[in-house]
């Protein structure tokens, strides 16, 4: 019985030490894996996404449309907000100012940018009631990011967003060109000239 009393704590202690060692090795391996990933060369999609995230902040936009549309005003349309979120895994783009307005009655389209394996993809949550997806391609000089149509979900009876181009001018100035495909495959093009109001203070 005395032997059992001595052996049991030894076995428990050995098991505990083994568990601690296993956890320590697993944590070390995880840190090593993370370091290896951070040291690995970035893909073109990751580089494009990193560049896009530098636009985080509030921007004042002036818009012109072709053909002209009264609803768009062909002038200043207020703020455009870009916000890094989801631990840096997504960028939220919101058009229009809703302060004091009912979001069910005013336009306020939201676009989400994210990495999908080796592609930079956007999903545009349109006021027309659908969700087109587009994939990015970067110009050789890295100053233009162009999004080509992939597919669309939802109701397309009023048309859907078909194409988007982001052009980086400097830290406080960029342009956006959005193309909407209307009924009968007619295209409406909106050019937005954006000047920075402020930067995003923190990623949430």
Q: Helices and strands in order, then pairings?
A:
Blueprint: H1 2-39, H2 44-53, E1 57-66, E2 76-85, E3 90-95, E4 110-116, E5 119-125, E6 130-138, E7 144-154, E8 160-170, E9 173-181, E10 187-199
Antiparallel strand pairs: 1-2, 1-10, 2-3, 3-4, 4-5, 5-6, 6-7, 7-8, 8-9, 9-10
Which architecture of the largest domain would the CATH scheme give at its second level?
Beta Barrel
State the CATH topology of the largest domain: Lipocalin
Quote the average pLDDT.
82
Instruction: Write down the secondary-structure element order.
Output: HHEEEEEEEEEE
Bin the helical content: 10-25%
End-to-end Cα distance: 60 Å
The backbone outline, from C-alpha atoms, is: globular
The secondary-structure class comes to alpha+beta
Q: What's the β-strand tally? A: 10
- The CATH class label of the largest domain is Mainly Beta
Per DSSP, the total helix count is 2
In spatial order, strands of the major sheet run: 1-2-3-4-5-6-7-8-9-10
Strand proportion, as a percent range, falls in over 45%
CATH homologous superfamily heading of the largest domain: Calycin beta-barrel core domain
- Largest beta-sheet details: 10 strands, antiparallel, barrel
Query: Which parts are unreliable, with pLDDT below 50 for 5 consecutive residues or more?
Result: 2-26
Q: How large, in whole angstroms, is the Cα Rg?
A: 25 Å
Task: Work out the count of structural domains.
Answer: 2
Keywords:
single chain; 204 residues; alpha+beta; Lipocalin; 2 domains; 10-stranded antiparallel β-barrel; 2 helices; disordered N terminus
């Amino acid at each position: 019985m005395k032997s059992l009393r001595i052996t049991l704590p030894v076995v428990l202690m050995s098991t505990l030490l083994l568990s601690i060692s296993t956890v320590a090795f697993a944590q070390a391996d995880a840190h090593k894996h993370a370091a290896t990933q951070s040291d690995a060369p970035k893909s073109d999609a990751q580089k494009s996404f990193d560049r896009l995230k530098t636009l985080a902040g509030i921007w004042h936009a002036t818009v012109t449309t072709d053909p002209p549309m009264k609803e768009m005003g062909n002038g200043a349309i207020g703020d455009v907000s870009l916000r890094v979120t989801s631990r840096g895994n997504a960028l939220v783009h919101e058009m229009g100012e809703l302060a004091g307005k009912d979001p069910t009655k005013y336009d306020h389209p939201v676009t989400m940018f994210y990495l999908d394996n080796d592609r930079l993809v956007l999903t545009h949550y349109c006021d027309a009631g659908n969700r087109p997806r587009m994939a990015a391609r970067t110009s050789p000089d890295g100053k233009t990011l162009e999004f080509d149509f992939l597919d669309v979900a939802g109701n397309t009876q009023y048309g859907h967003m078909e194409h988007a181009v982001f052009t980086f001018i400097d830290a406080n100035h960029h342009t956006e060109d959005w193309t909407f495909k209307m009924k009968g495959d007619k295209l409406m093009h909106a050019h937005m000239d954006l000047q920075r109001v402020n930067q995003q203070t923190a990623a949430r």
